[in-house]
């Protein structure tokens, strides 16, 4: 099967007839409106696929991903993250583009998106395109517009950089499949962790319309892998995998529920990433919580830390949280917290412990663990050597021995270690450190959520 | 002690390695130095090394055939590093020499790079990481602008000699463009012509006035980019500290959006 079979010739009619519902602003205004409308989508990674340029066009991709700049909120800007349009027939209450809100609306043309992408890309501003969209006219109509844009970018402009595209819930599977052969990563937002919350806040979406295309993309990727083993030149379907995102703090789910959903998605849907987005009440909708301390950033941070533990550190959600302890400790990161509750595994001997055991030591990451395993074949390691390899000794020293010795004489006692860890102010999250008022409001958030 | 004093460049250091090896003074009695600050050690004989591309090529070839390309690339990155690193416990050229000597003495020589508790290896590790990190940062933060002639021009201020890393990346990425990457701190430039490989040239005589004449579209796309950059930030999550932690201030001047 070749790309040509799957991609019919570019039909110009599809995007000529876009109804201009409001006004037709200049490209600059459009870009401002449609960037602003896309900014609450968190996924902006350009990782997961290595592809060299073929010399006939523009672009390549690197599997480590490249962030080109960092916005005022400190988040990375890797892709040109825009909506095709912020017109929308849906009424999700958490979203600023819902059909009831009174905001300026705009719609790009595929040509405009191609020009912006190519001109930004050759100046090394961006790593590629992130294209999402409000639902204009119907899910199928919207998905087709997205497909036309990607088709143009890939074939007319011969763009070989990174493309992350949203699959529109409810769109025809065939359209999603065709688009998948042009994109590097596809995502469908789960939006909210439980179907109850989804019904309440996004009545036009349902678990079914979200999970069905997700399953379809998963199957597409598996089939494609088999196809690739037979025909090496077969076109690649979503080579960088699929991702999703959940909004955190808009609904009353606890961390245990959220992490269990994430774990399920990794296991059953082979997702590459699950993103967590701290809720920002943009619409001042009375049905949604008002968060006096700002968006729940610390909670989001803890969820990401735990997410990493699931993906790279061989932890399971049941080890980190339980029905009785459904939320993460706000003072300690999930790994430290786990270690303090399982002191029976410690201290670990650097010279002999296997890779997986080393991974569980607070202060040792995936890179430093593999460096240790390799370096100790050459000679005995001591604490200064560990420091050079990137081990964070101020956390690790309570849990490690080098040739049977600890770094300092310490007690293997939960309270003692906890007190010592927190006596170093830099180990306490900044939000909690800065003021008591904030600390109180954070506790309030937690109790309101759980 | 015999100290071979070499120039701080790949060719200089590799020639030093060749001369030191060929001298037969015994590895224990030999050190290399790329430090030309004039601090001399007592009871040592200083031997100046004149960079020689033939000798350097021979050393490269030995490394590639006996220790593999990964080893060779690591050593090159290390040689390209800025040797004024505070964390360093050893001279750069000397660390390279000791590492090569150690690697050639072992059956699986390339594995020595993993033995991080050896002083010379930890020095190689640190320097290589320094170059690779800055190289990656500049892949991210380098900005091209289009000149009147249609050539893309970028200016960087690099601490380490990262031009080969950048030029290789952009040659693959923009094969049909003509571009120049100018490293103002080393006065060197990588020049790429459409569909050809790149060249690294001495740019000390570059006329910088010519690089200030932008094409007619350039200003428009810069403004569009700044609009995008301002709109993408979420006001409720504003965090300037995190921003400057992620994109260090020294890169700001050479970007478009943070200048």
Automatic annotation (TrEMBL), chain A:
<dbReference type="GO" id="GO:0051536">
    <property type="term" value="F:iron-sulfur cluster binding"/>
</dbReference>
<keyword id="KW-0949">S-adenosyl-L-methionine</keyword>
<dbReference type="InterPro" id="IPR051675">
    <property type="entry name" value="Endo/Exo/Phosphatase_dom_1"/>
</dbReference>
<dbReference type="GO" id="GO:0046872">
    <property type="term" value="F:metal ion binding"/>
</dbReference>
<dbReference type="GO" id="GO:0003824">
    <property type="term" value="F:catalytic activity"/>
</dbReference>
<keyword id="KW-0411">Iron-sulfur</keyword>
<protein>
    <submittedName>
        <fullName>DNA modification/repair radical SAM protein</fullName>
    </submittedName>
</protein>
<dbReference type="InterPro" id="IPR013785">
    <property type="entry name" value="Aldolase_TIM"/>
</dbReference>
<dbReference type="InterPro" id="IPR007197">
    <property type="entry name" value="rSAM"/>
</dbReference>
<keyword id="KW-0479">Metal-binding</keyword>
<dbReference type="InterPro" id="IPR058240">
    <property type="entry name" value="rSAM_sf"/>
</dbReference>
<keyword id="KW-0408">Iron</keyword>
<dbReference type="InterPro" id="IPR010994">
    <property type="entry name" value="RuvA_2-like"/>
</dbReference>
<dbReference type="InterPro" id="IPR023874">
    <property type="entry name" value="DNA_rSAM_put"/>
</dbReference>
UniProtKB/TrEMBL annotation, chain B:
<protein>
    <submittedName>
        <fullName>TIGR03915 family putative DNA repair protein</fullName>
    </submittedName>
</protein>
<feature type="domain" description="DUF4130">
    <location>
        <begin position="91"/>
        <end position="257"/>
    </location>
</feature>
<dbReference type="Pfam" id="PF13566">
    <property type="entry name" value="DUF4130"/>
</dbReference>
<dbReference type="InterPro" id="IPR023875">
    <property type="entry name" value="DNA_repair_put"/>
</dbReference>
<dbReference type="InterPro" id="IPR025404">
    <property type="entry name" value="DUF4130"/>
</dbReference>
């Amino acid at each position: 099967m070749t790309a040509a079979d799957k991609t019919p010739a570019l039909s110009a009619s599809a995007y000529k007839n876009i109804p201009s519902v409001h006004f037709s602003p200049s490209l600059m205004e459009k870009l401002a409106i449609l960037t602003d409308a896309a900014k609450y989508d968190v996924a902006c990674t350009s990782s997961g696929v290595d592809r060299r340029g073929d010399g006939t066009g523009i672009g390549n991709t690197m599997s480590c991903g490249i962030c080109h700049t960092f916005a005022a909120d400190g988040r990375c800007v890797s892709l040109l993250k825009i909506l095709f349009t912020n017109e929308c027939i849906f009424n999700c209450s958490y979203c600023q583009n819902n059909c009831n809100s009174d905001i300026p609306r705009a719609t790009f043309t595929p040509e405009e998106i191609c020009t912006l992408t190519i001109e930004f890309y050759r100046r090394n501003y961006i790593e590629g395109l992130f294209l999402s969209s409000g639902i204009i006219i119907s899910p199928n109509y919207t998905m087709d517009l997205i497909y036309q844009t990607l088709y143009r970018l890939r074939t007319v402009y011969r763009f070989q950089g990174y493309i992350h595209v949203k699959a529109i819930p409810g769109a025809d599977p065939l359209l999603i499949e065709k688009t998948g052969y042009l994109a590097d990563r596809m995502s469908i937002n789960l939006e909210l962790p439980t179907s109850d919350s989804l019904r309440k806040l996004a009545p036009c979406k349902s678990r079914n319309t979200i999970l069905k295309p997700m399953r379809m993309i998963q199957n597409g990727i598996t089939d494609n892998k088999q196809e690739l083993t037979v025909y090496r030149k077969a076109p690649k379907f979503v080579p960088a995998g699929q991702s999703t995102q959940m909004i955190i703090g808009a609904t009353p789910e606890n961390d245990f529920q959220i992490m269990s959903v994430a774990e399920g998605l990794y296991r059953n849907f082979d997702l590459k990433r699950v993103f967590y987005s701290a809720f920002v009440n943009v619409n001042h909708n009375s049905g949604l919580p008002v968060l006096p301390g700002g968006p729940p950033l610390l909670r989001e941070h803890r969820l990401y830390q735990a997410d990493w533990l699931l993906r790279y550190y061989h932890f399971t959600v049941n080890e980190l949280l339980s029905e009785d302890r459904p939320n993460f400790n706000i003072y300690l990161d999930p790994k430290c917290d786990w270690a303090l509750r399982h002191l029976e595994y410690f201290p670990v001997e650097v010279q002999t412990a296997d890779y997986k055991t080393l991974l569980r030591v607070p202060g040792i990451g995936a890179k430093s663990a593999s460096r240790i395993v390799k370096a100790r074949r050459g000679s005995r390691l001591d604490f200064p050597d560990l420091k050079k390899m990137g081990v964070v000794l101020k956390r690790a020293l309570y849990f490690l021995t080098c040739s049977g010795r600890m770094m300092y004489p310490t007690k293997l006692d939960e309270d003692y270690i906890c007190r010592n860890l927190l006596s170093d102010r830099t180990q306490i999250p900044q939000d909690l450190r800065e003021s008591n008022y904030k600390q109180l409001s954070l506790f309030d958030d937690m109790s309101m959520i759980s | 002690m015999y100290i071979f004093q070499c120039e701080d460049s790949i060719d200089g250091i590799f020639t030093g390695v060749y001369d030191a090896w060929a001298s037969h003074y015994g590895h224990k009695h030999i050190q290399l130095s790329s430090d030309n600050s004039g601090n001399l050690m007592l009871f040592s004989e200083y031997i100046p090394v004149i960079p020689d591309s033939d000798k350097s090529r021979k050393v490269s070839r030995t490394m590639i055939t006996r220790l593999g390309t990964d080893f060779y690339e690591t050593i090159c990155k290390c040689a390209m590093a800025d040797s004024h690193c505070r964390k360093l416990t050893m001279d750069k050229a000397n660390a390279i020499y000791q590492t090569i000597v150690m690697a050639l003495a072992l059956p699986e020589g390339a594995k020595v790079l993993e033995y991080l508790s050896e002083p010379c290896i930890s020095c190689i590790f640190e320097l290589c990481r320094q170059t690779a990190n800055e190289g990656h940062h500049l892949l991210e933060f380098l900005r091209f602008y289009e000149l009147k002639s249609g050539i893309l021009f970028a200016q960087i201020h690099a601490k380490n000699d990262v031009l080969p890393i950048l030029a290789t990346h952009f040659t693959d990425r923009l094969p049909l463009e003509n571009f120049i990457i100018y490293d103002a701190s080393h006065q060197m430039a990588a020049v790429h012509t459409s569909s050809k490989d790149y060249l690294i040239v001495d740019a000390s005589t570059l006329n910088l006035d010519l690089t200030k004449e932008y094409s007619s579209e350039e200003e428009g796309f810069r403004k569009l980019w700044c609009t995008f950059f301002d709109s993408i930030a979420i006001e409720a999550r504003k965090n300037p500290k995190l921003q400057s932690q992620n994109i260090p201030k020294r890169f700001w001047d050479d970007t478009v959006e943070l200048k």
